[in-house]
Amino acid sequence: MLCILFLIISFTGTFGQVLECWDRERKEMVAIKIVRGIKKYREAAMIEIEVLQQLAKHDKGGNRCVQIRNWFDYRNHICIVFEKLGSSLYDFLRKNNYRSFPIDLVREIARQLLECIAFMHDLCMIHTDLKPENVLLVSSEYIKVPDYKSSLHTPKDSSYFKRMPKSSAIKVIDFGSTTYERPDQNYIVSTRHYRAPEVILGLGWTYPCDIWSVGCILVELCTGEALFQTHENLEHLAMMERVLGPLPQHMLKRVDRHAEKYVRRGRLDWPEGAASRESIKSVMKLPRLQNLIMQHVDHSAGDLTHLLQGLLRYDPTDRLTAREALRHPFFTRDHLRR
């Protein structure tokens, strides 16, 4: 790069750092992802660059995915220069004390997220790591509005107010785990809380694993909390059954050798196989999906629940595609008439 970059702030992650810098040539703020000089991270970075370039070639308006500006290799570190965006949906929730988003904002974010995934799937790409951390608001600007649900707080208390993004515009980031469709993809993908059942059970995965992740993200935006807060496979599957009903027999019969221990006599080995009483309690406290949504959504709860039931179908062949989801009444119904 010919321009001179000045460090403003930095973010450190497993892969390396993201620096917010001033591009003196373009006269704009940019974000630079500096990848650790380790073989596997360098390889992932080169995959991400190739994917970003392909996406940019087809996404003429640049409205769906983060835009790559440039890249260079500096002292064995791959450095990728991106347009600067706002905070991630996760960071926004965290700074907002994990307060849920209004349903109309969730609708707009869901529409854009599904449009991005439909666009990627049309190009035979699977993101494989969709989560609130990898969905960024385009703008950092927000306003403070009264939080009427915080009835225990007085108006003088700052927690009586919550933040609302000024714009609902989002873009998807982090394509280091993106893959093209191939037969027999069985390795583990997705961050734990957003991992589809077919991945855990070793049944192979393809485009629908992204759709499952979208469903988990939408629930989190509506409630403020991750739907499946667990770090263990059997507990994760038990949580799914608690929220969505029993796993299909035909899927449990086909589990790979690594997942056989989660199944006993044709059903999930739960609660018998639970690691602890605390694990059983954490599963038992979860409500059914419909009840969970009704607790947090004031209107459109029926349409949203029905959409989520389509996004979170166990059998990936029955799960809605991104294009099908975009035609759902949650998006197409005239909500202004409610």
From TrEMBL:
Its EC number is 2.7.12.1. SUPFAM superfamilies: Protein kinase-like (PK-like) (SSF56112). One of its GO terms (cellular component) is nucleus. Keywords: ATP-binding, Kinase, Nucleotide-binding, Serine/threonine-protein kinase, Signal, Transferase. Residues 4-331 form the Protein kinase domain. Gene3D superfamilies: Phosphorylase Kinase, domain 1 (3.30.200.20), Transferase(Phosphotransferase) domain 1 (1.10.510.10). GO terms for molecular function: ATP binding; protein serine/threonine kinase activity; protein serine/threonine/tyrosine kinase activity. Residues 1-16 form the signal peptide. InterPro entries: CLK_kinases (IPR051175), Kinase-like_dom_sf (IPR011009), Prot_kinase_dom (IPR000719), Ser/Thr_kinase_AS (IPR008271). It is an enzyme of class 2 (transferase). It catalyses: L-seryl-[protein] + ATP = O-phospho-L-seryl-[protein] + ADP + H(+); L-tyrosyl-[protein] + ATP = O-phospho-L-tyrosyl-[protein] + ADP + H(+); L-threonyl-[protein] + ATP = O-phospho-L-threonyl-[protein] + ADP + H(+). It holds the Pfam family Pkinase. Belongs to the protein kinase superfamily. CMGC Ser/Thr protein kinase family. Lammer subfamily. This is dual-specificity kinase. It comes from Citrus clementina.
